[in-house]
Design a protein that fits this description.
Chain A is an alpha/beta fold. Helix content of chain A is 37%, strand content 20%. Chain B has helices at 65-78, 84-87, 90-106, 108-119, 123-144, 180-193, 208-220, 234-243, 256-268, 292-304, 321-336, 356-371, 403-406, 422-430, 445-454, 487-492, and strands at 31-33, 36-38, 45-50, 55-61, 152-153, 159-167, 170-174, 197-201, 227-229, 249-253, 273-277, 283-286, 316-320, 375-378, 382-383, 389-390, 393-396, 413-419, 437-441, 459-462, 481-482, 495-503. The N and C termini of chain B lie far apart (50 Å). Classes of the chains: A alpha/beta, B alpha/beta. Chain B: Its EC number is 1.2.1.36.
């Protein structure tokens, strides 16, 4: 029940129902203890299964957020490199190419092989992820890598199962649909779950037979470039996957306004999502899917299991240093339990272990970079200024690196900046409510609609609230439960389209209707 | 547009063919229940023969009703609410099936050699085709495990309604001897990906590869009791499964005659769900405008593949009048150039029939063909001095009322008939109690699509024959069976749909 994204410390606190499933609780692999972060692979641009310097010859530094120090230099792709990559992708997508002629089941086999290779190099990839992003190694290894492997295997299975239809068209015709790949897909991914977002993007695109030009976030290019090696090793033909490290305004913009890119998928801020959608409109009307920001409400009814609700609300916000688009950043607590809930949440936040992400005891590492770090501290001071009650934290947590103390605000009002804008940091807002109708209205009063949750033991309340919330995912008595099987995406300004699940495939196919005149129709 | 196989457009690469194992050891000859090996309750064993030389390979424990009872108990226990199997993630079931595919791939040579020796199957065919299909089917079904979606349903009124696709429970699966391993996989893979538990009875002629699979299933990590394998005979073990009050579903592949018994047993006992994949007398229609080389070759393979022992065998070839003589001439030429012999040897193109009973039945039908006036163009008798070999046989001038045009021969005996018009051949092709497969060869798009719609068969091939893969549903119209195997359709045969309706305070769209 409390699957997947629950960190190890959160396991086993599932109450009664968890007992039933104990027998099948998947056994987590034990953490690999010898951590290796030596960068013994190319940090260039990956095009046609080969490594290239940037056309401009420029490089940019990748920084360790735990120390603020430069890890290495990485080739900096921009428009010229995107053009090269799109050309390679287009060639790989030509009619009659090895990729186009490949059996669908063989595409699945290649994706499964990629999953095998990632599993083989799991410890190394987890270490790279922690080095570059700052997330605790235990999380990288147990949560991120696990989900990456499962996601690729899930989509491997879809490759020969995404069926077209035959259609009983009126008249003497035979009519069927083909689900064809869209073509060259630009994919622009964020820094908060670098490997996982790469898998979310590649899995459905490759299962359905597309070719990909991916731009990885400039903050966290290291793990994605290592995976490029594995893509080649798995046996994907040249040009099927091309990976460009670089910046949004240059490489990202080049992808989204490219006339030869058939689709762009973006995960990141709502602000940039607007730019992508606009670029698509102004160029070739490429298909656009967006997975953007959120300000997700987490509603705690007074009849909820208090221990579990406090635990999950804490996890919902603080997981991954608060750097989750689906973070439960508006915790609505019913009046009669409000004080106790706040008290226990503060206690829990205070006990959160912040520190070196390679230390196995660490629950919270640094924020990803200085910009985010400063932005979050800015929100905290705005919160104080606007009259929210700072109950704990509120400051940097170390004298170097981008660490921030776990922070809890009580008495937060809906109109405060910290209740409206995405903070993307370890800052929890707790709000009070009285009635169900009131809280649904307040929860929905946001430009965002990514996720939401409700904690209650009452079946009617659970159904009523979950159906009333305007969000792409609603969790009941849980939070951040992800699986490759379940679709994810936003209402309103939280995005367009869905990722994962069967729904996630839809964004990566064009439906072609074929109609053939026949002499005589028979049922 | 380049045809597959031309230089710049290579066909998918098959693995290189190794030599068969010289010193194959038969390690697994007991009943597999609860991931353990058991003697039969009765203490009985039966002999397993190599049909190429009629020599005994080994003895196998003979399961009957008492052993089926034990196996069903184990399967029932493994299916209890809260069991490791029931509480397992669907994706984990998929992972186990993928693991099993890996193990089959690892032991491909052992399994292919065993299949060739036990089933009289050409080693090259066993290694490349049968094992290839097994591995792909396991991986295909592995992928389905976490994609079998229930639905939420916009029911009228203030209700929230959803469906769960639940496993049916204990599935009895009775499999034939013509594709022992492929049929074993076709049965267990969809059943397991949906979360069922199974009791499998392999054919008494060919139990060895199925028993070997027992060891791999255990190694892959399936919990005890999920797969149970009881070798034995139809009238005892098979009947015990199909009559069993605690078996929730029975799936059978075999003869139409036995298919009726199975359905009757289900009706008499607990109304267990029944799927059947039975016999056929599949029409293969060749128009004068077809590419004749292609048509002759597919028609030949469509009949002679695996000694004619295929339920889908294209055993009624209807050829349009203008090309009839030429088609017959080329078909004879193709059938004459055959090397029969030990199926383990390279260069051998046809092995033995499975056993003496089949061997005699085929020869008897050949005699009836001659007696009823069909023209024997080649073959027509046994081959060699030991083993159950039959010469590749071609009959021309076959008419619809002859026994060889109506009954399933299940041997290397090709019937070629003549036709004049489209309407005529549709009528004649459909004039059978069977409806498993059919094919049409033509370059004309209208004819092709007319036949695709008009033929009463679960599979229709256009300009090809025997093209099968795990993604495509397969099964029969009429007395060729009930239900479908493979594809998404095949998966649904292993689920019960449960509708859950919850009263809610207020419905909103």
């Amino acid at each position: 029940l409390e699957e997947n994204m629950v960190p190890p410390s959160g396991r086993g606190a599932g109450g009664g129902l968890a007992l039933l499933s104990q027998a099948a609780e998947p056994v987590l692999p034990s953490l690999a203890v010898s951590i290796n972060t030596a960068l013994l692979y190319s940090l260039q641009i990956f095009i046609n299964n080969e490594w290239h310097d940037a056309v401009s010859k420029k490089t940019f530094p990748s920084i360790n957020p735990a120390t603020g120090e430069v890890i290495c230099q990485v080739a900096e792709g921009d428009k010229a490199d995107v053009d090269k990559a799109v050309k390679a992708a287009k060639a790989a997508f030509q009619l009659g190419s090895p990729w186009r002629r490949m059996d669908a089941s063989h595409r699945g086999k290649l994706l499964n092989r990629l999953a095998d290779l990632i599993e083989r190099d799991r410890a190394y990839l987890a270490a790279l992820e922690t080095l570059d992003n700052g997330k605790p190694y235990s999380i990288s290894y147990l949560v991120d890598l696990d989900m990456v492997v499962k996601c690729l295997r899930y989509f491997a299975g879809w490759s020969d199962k995404f069926h077209g239809k035959t259609i009983p068209l009126d008249g003497d015709f035979f009519c069927y649909t083909r689900h064809e790949p869209v073509g060259v897909c630009g994919q622009i991914i964020p820094w908060n779950f670098p490997l996982l977002m790469q898998a979310w993007k590649l899995g459905p695109a490759l299962a359905t037979g597309n070719v990909v030009v991916m731009k990885v976030a400039e903050q966290t290019p290291l793990s994605a470039l290592y995976v490029a090696n594995l893509i080649k090793e798995a046996g994907f033909p040249p040009g099927v996957v091309n990976i460009i490290p670089g910046y949004g305004p240059t490489a990202g913009a080049a992808i989204s306004s490219h006339m030869d890119v058939d689709k762009v998928a973006f995960t990141g801020s709502t602000e940039v999502g607007h730019l992508i959608q606009k670029a698509a409109a102004e160029s070739n009307l490429k298909r656009v899917t967006l997975e953007l920001g959120g300000k997700s409400p987490n509603i705690i009814m007074s009849d909820a299991d208090m221990d579990w609700a406090v635990d999950q609300a804490h996890f919902a916000l603080f997981f991954n240093q608060g750097q989750c688009c689906c973070a439960g950043s508006r915790t609505y607590v019913q009046e009669d339990i409000y004080h106790e809930f706040v008290e226990r949440s503060v206690e829990k936040a205070k006990s959160r272990v912040v520190g070196n992400p390679f230390d196995f005891k660490t629950e919270q590492g640094p924020q990803v970079d200085e910009e985010q770090f400063k932005k979050i501290l800015g929100y905290i001071s705005t919160g104080k200024r606007e009259g929210a009650k700072l109950l704990c934290g509120g400051n940097p947590a170390a004298d170097r690196g981008y660490f921030i103390q776990p922070t809890v605000f009580g008495d937060v009002q809906d109109n405060m900046t910290i209740a409206r804008e995405e903070i993307f940091g370890p800052v929890m807002q707790i709000l009070k409510f009285k009635t169900i109708e009131e809280v649904i209205e307040r929860a929905n009063d946001s430009k965002y609609g990514l996720a939401a949750a409700v904690f209650t033991k009452d079946l009617d309340k659970a159904n009523y609230v979950s159906h009333g919330l305007r969000a792409g995912t609603v969790w009941i008595n849980c939070y951040d439960v992800f699986g490759a099987q379940a679709p994810f995406g936003g209402y309103k300004a939280s995005g367009n389209g869905r990722e994962l699940g069967e729904y996630g495939l839809e964004a990566y196919v064009e439906v072609k209707n074929v109609t053939i005149k026949i002499p005589q129709k028979n049922s | 547009m380049k045809k597959q196989g031309s230089d710049s457009n290579p066909a998918p690469v098959l693995p290189a063919l190794p030599e068969p194992l010289k010193d194959l050891k038969i390690k697994y000859t007991k009943i597999f229940i609860n991931n353990e090996w058991h003697d039969s309750v009765s203490g009985k064993k039966f002999e397993v023969f190599n049909p190429a030389n009629e020599e005994k390979i080994c003895e196998v424990e003979e399961g009957d009703k008492a052993d089926v009872d034990k196996a069903v108990k184990a399967a029932r226990k493994a299916f209890e609410l809260g069991s490791p199997w029931r509480t397992m993630d669907a994706s984990e079931r998929g992972r186990l099936l993928n693991k099993l595919a890996d193990l089959v791939e690892r032991d491909r040579l052992i399994l292919a050699t065993m299949e060739a020796i036990d089933g009289g199957k050409l080693f090259s065919t066993a290694y490349l085709m049968d094992l290839g299909a097994c591995i792909k089917t396991l991986r295909y079904c592995a992928g389905w495990a976490d994609k079998i979606h229930g639905r939420t349903v916009p029911m009228d009124g203030n209700f929230f309604t959803f469906t769960r696709h639940e496993p049916i429970g204990v599935c009895g699966q009775i499999i034939p001897w013509n594709f022992p391993l492929v049929m074993f996989i076709w049965k267990i893979a969809p059943a397991l990906c949906c979360g069922n538990t199974v009791v499998v009875k392999p054919a008494e002629q060919t139990p060895l590869t199925a028993l070997y699979m027992g060891s791999l299933i255990k190694e892959a990590g399936f919990p005890p009791g999920v797969v149970n394998i009881v070798p034995g005979f139809g009238p005892t073990a098979g009947a015990a499964i199909s009559h069993h009050m605690d078996v929730d579903k029975v799936a059978f592949t075999g003869s139409t005659e036995v298919g009726k018994l199975i359905k009757e047993a289900a009706g008499k006992s607990n109304l267990k769900r029944v799927t059947l994949e039975l016999g056929g007398k599949s029409p293969n229609i060749i128009f004068a405008d077809a590419d004749l080389d292609t048509a002759v070759e597919f028609a030949h393979i469509g009949l002679f593949y695996h000694q004619g022992q295929c339920c889908i065998a294209g055993s009624r070839i209807f050829v349009e009048e203008p090309v009839y003589d030429e088609f017959v001439r080329r078909s004879i030429e193709r059938a004459k150039n055959y090397t029969l012999g030990n199926p383990l040897l390279p260069g051998v193109q046809q092995g033995p029939q499975i056993d003496k009973e089949q061997f005699q039945k085929i020869l008897e039908l050949i005699e009836s063909g001659k007696k009823e006036g069909a023209k024997l163009e080649c073959g027509g008798g046994p081959w060699g001095d030991k083993g159950y070999f039959i010469q590749p046989t071609v009959f021309s001038d076959v008419t619809d009322d002859m026994r060889i045009a109506k009954e399933e021969i299940f041997g290397p005996v090709q019937q070629i008939m003549k036709f004049k018009t489209i309407d005529e051949v549709i009528k004649r092709a459909n004039n059978t109690t069977y409806g498993l497969a059919a094919a049409v060869f033509t370059k004309d798009i209208d004819k092709a699509l007319t036949f695709a719609a008009a033929l009463q068969a679960g599979t229709v091939w256009v300009n090809c024959y025997s093209a099968m893969s795990a993604q495509c549903p397969f099964g029969g119209f009429k007395m060729s069976g009930n239900g479908r195997e493979m594809g998404e359709y095949g998966i649904h045969e292993y689920t019960e749909v449960k509708t859950v309706t919850i009263k809610i305070p207020q419905k909103n769209s």
